[in-house]
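Work Package 4 report. The design task specified in the project plan requires that, given a folded chain encoded as structure tokens, an amino acid be chosen for each position. We show below one input record used in the internal validation round.
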């Protein structure tokens, strides 16, 4: 009987796996169609200089504007966040054309803002698959050339995963990008086991402190000490430090008192459509903090 039960459980498990695989394939097919139908859109989240409260850059964050059937059978529009589709885009390789679209779209938008005398920078996130794809360095160079955006105002964000899969090749590609004049940032710094080692392998211009540190600032002594250490490390290395996920005024105050240069988070501004950014801080208005 035990065996029967076990077998039954195995069947349920297999059916579950099957459903999951089918679900993933369906999602990948929908993503491909969505790219052709131009259903992707970008939101931008302001990054501020914590001392002056001036917006120094925006981070481009991809969203999928998807039409779905609601409960009552009517069409409803949903804005999907990356966590719902980036994994599938990476698995299917679709992240390569999607990432290229993100890069072109964001560079063009920020070039327009800069043409209107607004001195603003741009950060774009990269996945491993993108960096290791053939012609990636050319893709970045093309996006810069077409938009007229100067290389030095573009920051490419990578997380540690990028340096784990094929470190030699990834470092090679990222160094080539840096030679183009583009800035490099390590995203989610402090979360990986080898954050410090990677600073040796790769020359970066910016470190983004993971939100999990910012969340427990002040409340957890160890976390506060670690955050302060990362801020000092950045200062000693001459690397810009950006704290991510600032939601409460106490966190902002703590970061300021530590001398953390830049910050980003819901307290400062949420990610928003380009028009929202223009309305809020377009032309260089600061954010009262
Ligand atoms: P990330 O690069 O670390 O981006 C920051 C994420 O934190 C964004 O989530 C942003 O909305 C969120 N966030 C900002 N401030 C706060 C805050 O105060 N509190 C909280 N709870 N969250 C905050 P989002 O837009 O959902 O993006 C998630 C991740 O998806 C990004 O993490 C990035 O790794 C990836 N991603 C986004 N856009 C792209 C893209 O165009 N290409 C690639 N390859 N990955 C992307
Ligand atoms: Mg990022
Ligand atoms: Mg990231
Ligand atoms: Mg991050």
């Amino acid at each position: 009987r035990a065996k029967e039960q076990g077998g039954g459980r195995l069947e349920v498990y297999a059916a579950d796996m099957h459903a999951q695989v089918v679900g993933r394939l369906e999602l990948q097919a929908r993503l491909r169609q969505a790219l052709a139908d131009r259903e992707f859109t970008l939101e931008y989240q302001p990054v501020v200089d914590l001392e002056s409260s001036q917006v120094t850059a925006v981070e481009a964050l991809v969203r999928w504007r998807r039409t779905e059937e609601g409960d009552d059978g009517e069409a409803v529009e949903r804005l999907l966040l990356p966590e719902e589709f980036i994994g599938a885009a990476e698995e299917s390789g679709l992240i390569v054309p999607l990432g290229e679209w993100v890069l072109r779209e964001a560079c063009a938008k920020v070039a327009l803002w800069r043409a209107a005398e607004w001195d603003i920078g741009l950060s774009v996130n990269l996945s491993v698959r993108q960096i290791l794809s053939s012609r990636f360095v050319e893709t970045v160079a093309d996006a810069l050339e077409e938009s007229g955006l100067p290389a030095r105002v573009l920051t490419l964000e990578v997380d540690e995963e990028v340096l784990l899969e094929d470190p030699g090749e990834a470092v090679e590609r990222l160094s080539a990008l840096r030679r183009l004049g583009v800035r490099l940032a390590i995203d989610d710094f402090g979360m990986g086991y080898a954050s410090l080692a990677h600073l040796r392998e790769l020359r970066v211009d910016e470190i983004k402190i993971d939100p999990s540190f910012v969340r427990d600032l002040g409340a957890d002594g160890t976390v506060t000490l670690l955050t302060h250490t990362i801020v000092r490390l950045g200062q000693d290395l001459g690397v810009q430090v950006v704290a991510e996920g600032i939601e409460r005024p106490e966190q902002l105050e703590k970061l300021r008192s530590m001398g953390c240069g830049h910050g980003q988070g819901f307290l400062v501004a949420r990610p928003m459509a380009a028009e929202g950014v223009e309305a809020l801080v377009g032309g260089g208005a600061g954010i009262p903090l």
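The pocket of C2E (ligand 1) is lined by residues 45, 61-62, 81-83, 86, 95, 99, 102, 125-127, 157, 187-188, 211, 245-247, 264-266, 271 (CB under 6 Å). Validation will be extended to a larger panel in the next phase.
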